[in-house]
Amino acid sequence: MAYSRYFAWLSTLVLSIIFAAFNYYFAIFFFVLFLVGLSDWIQSRHSILRNYPLIGHLRFMLEYIRPEIRQYFLEDDEEKIPFSRNQRAMVYSRSKQVNDKRGFGSIKSMYGPEGEWLGHSNTPTHPDPSKFRIQVGGPSCLQPYSLSVFNISAMSFGALSPNAIRALNKGAKLGGFAHDTGEGSISSYHREFGGDIIWEIGSGYFGCRNPDGTFSEEKFVSQVDDPQIKMVEIKLSQGAKPGHGGVLPGPKVTAEIAATRGVPIGQDCVSPAHHSAFSSPLELMQFIGRLRKLSGGKPVGFKLCVGQPWEFFGIAKAMLETGICPDFIVVDGSEGGTGAAPVEFTDHVGMPLREGLRLVHNTLVGINKRNEIAIGASGKIISGYDIIRAIAIGADWCNSARGFMFALGCIQSRSCHTDKCPTGVATQDSVRQRALVVPDKAERVFSFHKSTMQSLAELIGAAGMTHPNQISSDYLMCRGSDGKARPYAAELPIVNTGVLIQGVNGINQKELPKEYGLYWNRARTDLFGLTPANR
């Protein structure tokens, strides 16, 4: 039953009435419990208590004793739990502006194969995190955008509740950072508070589609003219399920969602696995140029989880052939999450962020376009150090999805696909989503961003830097499989500026990462992938 979670609370009122007839003390006891539940239901700070009055306190009791019993009963299984409790606790403490310091030193070993650290300086600095922004917009961009180095990653209305979208966008407005819409298009909830928007356009062209599901120039222009939209992002693939489409079942396609996406009410809403507006790297570049012109010169780019290296090499070659380049590329690692991905895709498809990000960075360096094209990174990024690592590998800025979801109150119950999210974050149930109080959670979104930027400032300040754009792989150290410590730069593949413009032939293969020597000459611009003759 939809309201079964209220049963224990309301039962206390019934019991207090029953006991009032013959046991005054029990009646008072149960009535006090009822008042506690009523207070839970009314208060606006704790989503769990609003949705689970009275019984929700059991969770907080377990949280209170968890540090003492964790080693016996609650150890994290990192293969099964996307984020550790320590990571979630860090987000919660920062979003709630409480002390996130920890006694008794590090819990992470620096001596295993995963050990890595930031080298500090004897002349630390005190950077201003309000200046941690980058300019996005290449030579063909008429409306470049000053983007924060940390922003809200793509999460659609429909996947998230109206209140979650409101809180995210209001938090972005308060903090001066950007909110990616996800492929579900721009809803009224995105516009309500005026936060900066990155409009993601997926293969379903939601918000800019014709009745047959193809791209509509007219509808695109009517949306993109809004000054709240700062950048346009074409989604080629996402880390959690690269190469896979999606379906929002008809019963979930409400009038609001239908109006936002431009689809019929009550019918299955399909996101195809690939785009219909282009089918090759050359056509992708032409589509980017077309959107940039239609948008009045706003930054236009694309997002992908890197798959086959030669397909991205084909995109790079298409940039050289057409003279058209994206203003930015967002690299989504296979670590990325979603509430609706096939398990085997989540576990086994797509390139991890480190490898994908470095390949994209090196390719742009190799065609001498790195200074024109900004690179974003997403995939399990929630802390200041995560941002530093991504920038050291090749990013200019980072996006986070689950970090901001935790700030909203997500407890990672993994019930996104059931429409029964206990905190009102990932549900369209109007009763459940009332648990998420927008003003309170917007402040937490803002606080999480502010605290993370402050952490980033302290970290790069300790290393003697004044801006994240000064971070390079030389500042990080890691321990290889042989147990020896070495600079990150020694572990990452490197290409020289402009080397790929000349082609691979005639260049010492030892100077290039293996995949470039194998696939660069074979990459095609007239189609994605390889023909049988090229395999």
- Percentage of helical residues? 25-40%
- Tertiary shape: globular
Cα-to-Cα separation, first versus last residue? 56 Å
The biggest beta sheet, please?
8 strands, parallel
Tally of domains: 3
The average pLDDT value, as a whole number, equals 85
Could you say what the CATH architecture of the largest domain is? Alpha-Beta Barrel
Structural class, from helix and strand content?
alpha/beta
Rounded radius of gyration (Å): 25 Å
Strand content: 5-15%
Task: State the CATH class of the largest domain.
Answer: Alpha Beta
CATH topology of the largest domain: TIM Barrel
Number of helices: 19
Structure commentary:
- The strands form four sheets. The chain has an eight-stranded parallel sheet with strand order 4-13-12-11-10-7-6-5. A three-stranded antiparallel sheet has the order 1-14-15.
- Strand 12 (374-378), helix 14 (384-393) and strand 13 (397-400) form a beta-alpha-beta unit.
- The model is unreliable at 67-81 (pLDDT under 50).
- By secondary structure, it is of the alpha/beta class.
- The termini are far apart.
- Helix content is 38%, strand content 11%.
- It is globular.
- It has three domains: 4-75, no CATH class; 129-465 and 475-491, Alpha-Beta Barrel (TIM Barrel), CATH 3.20.20.70; 504-534, no CATH class.
- Helix 1 runs antiparallel to helix 2 (24-42).
- The chain has helices at residues 7-19, 24-42, 47-51, 57-73, 85-95, 162-175, 188-191, 217-224, 255-261, 281-294, 309-322, 343-348, 353-366, 384-393, 402-408, 430-433, 438-462, 488-491, 514-519; strands at 116-118, 133-136, 145-148, 150-152, 179-180, 197-201, 229-235, 246-248, 269-271, 300-304, 328-332, 374-378, 397-400, 476-479, 485-487.
